[in-house]
Write a structure and sequence with these properties.
Number of strands: 0
Structural class: mainly alpha
Strand content: under 5%
Order of helices and strands: HHHHH
Helix content: 40-55%
Radius of gyration: 18 Å
Distance between the termini: 51 Å
Largest sheet: none
Length: 97
């Protein structure tokens, strides 16, 4: 019999599958908050985006290239809930309060 798996497994379900154990109930999975967590540098970039700085200005503040900042901004925007710089700014505002 072929088992169809979802495209993305929660970590605990993946570990259980790898170990040949029964999958845990969905109720045991930790609930995700409104947006995925950001790394330290992504959080710094998000805060500066919220201040209205351009990628060039953010790069100058963080002593990195504009290209590096662009990569961080794209990485943030690839996460669910972040489709624009305005959404990054809105998330940052809610995290501060």
């Amino acid at each position: 019999m072929i088992t169809t798996l979802p495209l993305a497994l929660p970590r605990t379900a993946g570990v259980a599958l790898a170990l040949g154990e029964p999958a845990p109930d969905a109720a045991e999975e930790p609930e995700e908050e409104g947006a995925p967590p950001l790394g330290r540098r992504e959080s710094e970039v998000a805060r500066l985006v919220a201040e209205g700085l351009s990628n060039k200005q953010i790069g100058a503040r963080l002593f990195v290239s504009e290209h590096t900042v662009d990569g961080h901004v794209r990485a943030i925007m690839n996460k669910p809930g972040f489709g624009s710089r305005a959404q990054i700014a809105a998330w940052t505002a809610t995290e501060r309060s």
